[in-house]
Amino acid sequence: MLKYIVKRLFLLLPVLFGVTVMVFIVMHLFTTDPAEIILGQHATIEQMAELREELGFNRPLHEQYFEFLTGAIKGDFGNSLITKTPVVEEIGQRLPATLELALAGLLFATILGVTMGVISAIKQNSIFDYVSMVISLAGVSMPIFWLGLIFIVIFSLKLGVLPVAGRIQMGYEPTNITGLYLIDSLLTGDMVAFKSALEHIILPAVALGMYSAALIARMTRSTMLEVLGQDFIRTARAKGLFERIVIGIHGLRNALIPIVTVIGLQLGTLLGGAVLTETVFSWPGVGSYTVNSILKSDFTVVQGSVVYLAVIFVLVNLVVDILYAFLDPRIKYD
Amino acid sequence: MENIVEEINNETEEKYFDKPISPLKEIWYSLSKNKLAMAGLIIIILLILIALFGDFIMPYDPCVGELSESLQKPSSTHWLGTDEQGRDVLSRILDGTKISLRVGITAVAIALSVGLTLGSFAGYYGGKIDMLIMRFMDIILAFPSMLLAIALMSTLGKGIDKAIIAISIVTIPHYARIVRGSILSVKESEYVQAARVIGNNDLAIIFKHILPNVLAPIIVRATLGISIAILDTAALGFLGLGVQPPYAEWGTMLGSGRAYFFNANHLVLFPGLAITITVLAFNLLGDGLRDALDPKLQK
Asked: Domain B33-57+69-297 has what CATH class?
């Protein structure tokens, strides 16, 4: 097993190298001159040339790439062109918000998706089955940012039960331990902060998780139907086991491998989807930061955050792969 | 008596020795029994008709509005209300059908052509070519696709054609992988070997003999791919990176309507519904096609 993990990690290196090359090339095809972004449109040609020289933008591309790569390996992506703060620091401050949102979305998607899928499979062709399949079809067809806006209209503007935007009410932030407000507030026993953080995260997490919930529900339903038709389920029923044991222990456990894989792969999708959800709910995460930086042409920030998110995405997918091999003994490690 | 025997013989002949049903007819037969897929197909046909002849049924000019009539709620004069510039929302949604279908279909066509070619070469030739192509695909897949599309848009600039290119690039690996897998599964089949023995060159073997036999999963993925492309275009438009005003793209309409949705909910509701219905239609048809094309699922 250890050999397999090490091998997979080595195989990851060329992909990660490719990621840095691709991001670098894409960002250096940028039409806007970085010197113009920093100095503004009224700068003289001499001033811009001086700044380009100073920042090294007029050096050969391969030299610039090498510097970017060595920086990236050390975890240094340079400074923001606009705020001048180190990109890693900015991302570091926002990453917990993105992770918290993605994990909350995943939790919601898993609970809703697995429950809907299992009940649909047990009650195949019932009204519940049809309704849940319609919900999951709608779930994969709705744009998540639209769903987010609709939620805001219903729950924040009309009913007034949940906040419109942000991560927590100003001044309620819990002591920083993990950076995840829900966990930090629980660890410090600060229930006021917990309540505020929970109220703020419900709408974005549900909007973000709806697509994944729909996918998980469809996967769970089809896998459960396949498993429930197997001989060992008939045997379990024939020997007189309670139905909930047949379903829960014999059925669900055997259907778990493909379900866990889908759930794991969704975490990556949720990290990508967070870009949109964060924008809708003004969630202070890496996604909304990246979009704002693109709109402001702050390309060092875009470069850094895209590489950062891609690395997390790749690592999450690797962990899921390893977990898959671990759960299913039929998969050979070599 | 003889007549009866002859009649039975004729009947049997008709019944058992009739011309075989063509695969297309078989698929259509199976698809036409699937009510949801047919509903999807009917909606798609309607959308295509709207895209083609929408100009004739639009009540107002989608790009020109009366500022004095801005942000009106749905009424008998403006069925779906007006936007911040007084433009008729219904006309804009009808006009947006053109853009969404164009982006969805063109993006998939480009991604499919490139993916098909790359996947075919990787699967057929194997070895270094396979490794090179598929590692490159892995690199593209290493990014969350929406994030990569956004990053590409920031380089390419805004606009409909650029959105098409960005969305195509991020989806190429999906097609390349499916095609490669399908080719690997039939590469050593007897009919492929036979085609080689009679002197066909590699290109003819790939495009004339192998691909027509592995089209099923590719067609399904392409149909579902259109819905993903439409969603992605809307997302880019919403973020302000896609199709630019005054063109009526549904995502762009949602993005600009967002600023007014506190007092004009209809600016958010209707373009979103249009996206959902279109995407749903392609998803229904895609699911139906998958069932119709998968021999395991046929009864």
From this structure: mainly alpha
